[in-house]
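Is nicotinamide-adenine-dinucleotide placement plausible here? Inputs below.
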Amino acid sequence: MAKRALLLPGDGIGPDVMEAVQRVIGALNAAHGLGLETQTGEIGGASIDAHGVPLSGAVLDQARASDVVLMGAVGGPKWEGVAYHLRPEQGLLDLRKGLGLYANLRPAYCFSALADASSLKREFVEGLDLIFVRELIGGVYFGTPRGIDELPDGQKRGFNTQSYTTSEIERVARTAFELARKRQGAVCSVDKANVMESGLLWRQTVTALAAGEYPDIALTHMYADNCAMQLARAPKQFDVILTDNLFGDILSDEAAMLTGSLGMLPSAALGASGSPGLYEPIHGSAPDIAGKGVANPCAAILSLAMALRLQLGRPDLADRVEGSVAAVLDAGLRTPDLHAGPGTSQTGTEGFCDAVVQAIQ
Ligand code: NAD
Ligand code: IPM
Ligand code: MN
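Reply from A.M.:
I modeled the complex. Tokens:
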């Protein structure tokens, strides 16, 4: 039976990069027998404008009935300043939660052509290949109570709750350990156990799980502030970084710059086996460049590659897509977010995608 993908372009540069993804799917269907059927739906601001909510029940049902979901990005100034449940970002959170996608894989891989595009010197990033396993549907993003209330003295107080249960920690830690077994066998678990109870439980739970079920894994622990520094100092020390929802969000944006641009990092959000994964760039809707046709489509295209490898049963085509992106970068093509060194030429989203599609064919 043909596999089905739900495409959710979203807002800002989301539709630009999803257009590129759709063209790559077209090329894979036409030239390589992928046979992937696509449907398109709304999420985020686009859904607010069309349906009054950032994720409709109908789109969530469509997502559940798909093999994979591919998203662009959500958010933008147009929808800021309203209640959280009516903001574009809530659509993405609802989708992750609704599909039970607790493990977010965010690989930071430095293409050799981009070693000089990083904000670090070439020697620090050449050959970089680390991956975050970020907990995605717990922690302070979802904890209650939350809100802004008024104090008797007339001040306001904003508050959120960071909380993790043993089972929430165990299931995502398992994902990290299993992944590490297929890589270098090393997991660095990142928390703030020195100041937070949720971090202490995180550390205790990860340690106990490793001792009981993954004695073959080299498990280390690091405080999140140190990890931020170590990523900028010596990122190649890491193989798998396991961390919570908030730290994973922040540290993965930092790691993106090691690879040349935020526009390079793909992701896969996975849940229980059998449920569709969500594949999306880690970047946002980039309001500053929206509508200019210059967004880097690599993160979105590489997210499709992750879907091909992890859930669509076509690792051969994942290799082909990644190889095509590498070939286009090797040939010197760059979107404006990527440092333009000697022998490079600048192009926009469409021009870059043209070259990738050609390389795929
Ligand atoms: P952002 O990731 O949208 O942009 C940060 C910077 O990186 C900007 O200068 C932008 O131009 C650049 N950038 C991002 N992606 C790029 C690409 N593919 N090519 C070239 N340059 C790129 O972060 P922000 O500005 O903090 O947030 C903007 C909006 O996006 C907010 O509404 C935020 O909530 C939302 N957001 C959504 C997601 C998501 O949908 N997964 C992720 C992050 C932020
Ligand atoms: C990301 C984004 C989201 C997050 C927002 C838009 C909800 O920053 O996917 O990295 O914080 O998870
Ligand atoms: Mn983020």
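Short version: Residues 14-32 form the longest helix (19 residues).
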